[in-house]
Amino acid sequence: MEDEDPTAVEDDAPARPAGPEKDDRRAPERTCVATREVKAVGELIRFVRAPDGTVVPDLKRELPGRGVWVTASREAVRLAVKKKAFSRGFKEPATVDPAIDEQVAGLIGRSALGLLGFANKAGLVITGFAKVEAALSKENVVALIEASEASEDGVRKLGQVLRRLGMSSDTPVVRLFQGPQLDLALGRSNVVHAALLAGPVSAAFLARCDAYARYLGMNDGLGPA
């Protein structure tokens, strides 16, 4: 339970006009309640207070009510909990799951895997080492996907193929998910290596993976081969 601090002052907070509260979801920038930095909404995560007082992540920024914004990183969410910033932001007591940072991580990760599943249904995912190796020279591959536990030998060999084709610096490699997670998303077994072909859903998946890696603070989760 995050109790409201009656002595806390919401610094740098502008006075709110009387009358109905402005829809904060339409603002181009908001202030992170943890760091007090002003950032574009795309760099923040919105949270709302449910009727029972529970703090709920609103990743799609669709839920009604007053929003509290936190920089989109696990470190910042943890800081918001530590500083009891949610109650101050909502101006009333709020109940926060101590593991809300992990809850957010799970939501972002599942969202990314869901997009991968859509890409697969659109025929934009090729799996299997040999098929991926062949696709690199024949298809419009925009990224490689490797299970986080993939062997160093397999990763090295595909990296060599990319370098031989002059693609290594331009082709991102997603290493954010374990094999069983990829199996479930793609409806296949033993997925270790996959190639992602160009398409709108593929672009959305990569954008979500980038957000996921930044949230986790994983510099090597989405990078070059």
The average pLDDT value, as a whole number, equals 87
How much helix, percentage-wise, in residues? 25-40%
Order of strands across the main sheet: 6-9-7-8-10
CATH architecture of the largest domain: 2-Layer Sandwich
- How far the N terminus sits from the C terminus, by CA atoms, comes to 44 Å
Instruction: Report Rg.
Output: 21 Å
Helix segment count?
Answer: 7
What is the helix/strand order?
Answer: EEEEEHHHEHEHEHEHE
CATH superfamily of the largest domain: Ribosomal protein L30/S12
Class from helix and strand fractions: alpha+beta
How many domains would you count in the coordinates? 2
In the predicted model, the low-confidence regions spanning at least 5 consecutive residues are: 3-21
Tally of DSSP β-strands: 10
The global form is: elongated
Percent of residues in β-strands: 15-25%
Q: Give the C-level CATH assignment of the largest domain.
A: Alpha Beta
Domain YlxR: 30-104
Protein name: RNA-binding protein
Region (Disordered): 1-30
InterPro entries: Ribosomal_eL30-like_sf, YlxR, YlxR-like_sf, YlxR_dom
Commentary on this structure:
By secondary structure, the protein is an alpha+beta fold. The chain folds into 2 domains: 24-98, 2-Layer Sandwich (Hypothetical Cytosolic Protein, Chain: A), CATH 3.30.1230.10; 103-224, 60s Ribosomal Protein L30, Chain: A, CATH 3.30.1330.30. It is built from 7 helices and 10 strands. The strands form 3 sheets. A 5-stranded mixed beta sheet has the order 6-9-7-8-10. The longest helix has 22 residues, at 100-121. The radius of gyration is 21 Å and the shape is elongated. The chain starts with 28 loop residues before the first strand and ends with a strand. Residues 30-104 form the YlxR domain. Residues 1-30 are annotated as: Disordered. InterPro entries: Ribosomal_eL30-like_sf, YlxR, YlxR-like_sf, YlxR_dom. Residues 1-12 have a biased composition (Acidic residues). This is RNA-binding protein.
